[in-house]
């Protein structure tokens, strides 16, 4: 494929191929010499219209470790502030002949739109509440490494599903790979038509976590709530925050994940986030490896590759 815009465009074979390649990069990244030359001579631009710690820094490291020149476009100090549109910004950068453009934007569909306007390969680093494909891939890699499989596992995705691109990409990928997906949230934080997603739905944590192998927590995306339903922190933590007591509803060997950024004391308690069942730090490590795999696979379809 030329671009990576969403998990919805991938086949199970694509996913397995990316995870297998990412495994090689996990080993490479633990060595002292982490450099490869696959992307030597190539230019990668990170274009983030929304804040990011994990995704932007891991794409930067991934590009550099594969030998690319990497430029982080500072949107906050760019001509976007003078009214230049997203499309004009991307086309301006495109005129500088990048090979790979990694884009995050607050509007669902914006990255797809940009991909139709530029000559380079485009990676979706998160578009609104639509998709965050590399997050779902790194989550899958983390699950597979720790549970030795994805098929047949019960994965409970808990919290603000309505506004979550991470949830959407994970639902598509986990369903595709044969996991049993359960969404756990109050009705107000579930997307309309959730029954069509091919998932189980639970409105309380005891029911939702019963028999879960993986408990994936999501933060409340207050920036996307636009003054609609915003629960109080205390009330939300009481009913939906993952603490040690609620984690006992899941299987004894259940593992806890969170894409970050975490809001401790809101959707997750520190004792769980930093506890023995937490994979949260490992998810970050897998993020670099998965993004290296994505960049390498896309580079195979670049002109003169
Ligand atoms: N999980 C994730 O996308 O984190 P960042 O917003 O820090 O990139």
TrEMBL record:
Q: Which reaction is recorded as catalysed by this protein?
A: carbamoyl phosphate + L-aspartate = N-carbamoyl-L-aspartate + phosphate + H(+)
Gene Ontology CC annotations of this record: cytosol
The record, for Gene3D superfamilies, names:
Aspartate/ornithine carbamoyltransferase (3.40.50.1370)
> What is the organism field in this record?
Variibacter gotjawalensis
Pfam families on file: OTCace (PF00185), OTCace_N (PF02729)
**Domain Aspartate/ornithine carbamoyltransferase carbamoyl-P binding, which positions?**
2-144
Which pathway does this polypeptide act in? Answer: Pyrimidine metabolism; UMP biosynthesis via de novo pathway; (S)-dihydroorotate from bicarbonate: step 2/3
What's the Enzyme Commission number for this chain?
Answer: 2.1.3.2
Annotated residues that bind carbamoyl phosphate are located at 54-55, 104, 132, 135, 260-261
Coiled coil located at which positions? Answer: none
State the family named in the UniProt similarity comment for this chain: Belongs to the aspartate/ornithine carbamoyltransferase superfamily. ATCase family.
Q: What does this protein do?
A: Catalyzes the condensation of carbamoyl phosphate and aspartate to form carbamoyl aspartate and inorganic phosphate, the committed step in the de novo pyrimidine nucleotide biosynthesis pathway. Reversibly catalyzes the transfer of the carbamoyl group from carbamoyl phosphate (CP) to the N(epsilon) atom of ornithine (ORN) to produce L-citrulline.
Q: Which of the seven top EC classes does this enzyme belong to?
A: transferase
Record-linked SUPFAM superfamilies:
Aspartate/ornithine carbamoyltransferase (SSF53671)
Name the InterPro entries on file: Asp/Orn_carbamoyltranf_P-bd, Asp/Orn_carbamoylTrfase, Asp/Orn_carbamoylTrfase_sf, Asp_carbamoyltransf, Asp_carbamoyltransf_Asp/Orn-bd
UniProt keyword list: Pyrimidine biosynthesis, Transferase
Q: Which residues bind L-aspartate?
A: 82, 165, 219
List GO BP terms, alphabetically: 'de novo' pyrimidine nucleobase biosynthetic process; 'de novo' UMP biosynthetic process; amino acid metabolic process
The record's gene field reads: pyrB
Q: What superkingdom heads the lineage?
A: Bacteria
Q: What is this protein called?
A: Aspartate carbamoyltransferase
**Any idea where the Aspartate/ornithine carbamoyltransferase Asp/Orn-binding domain is?**
151-297
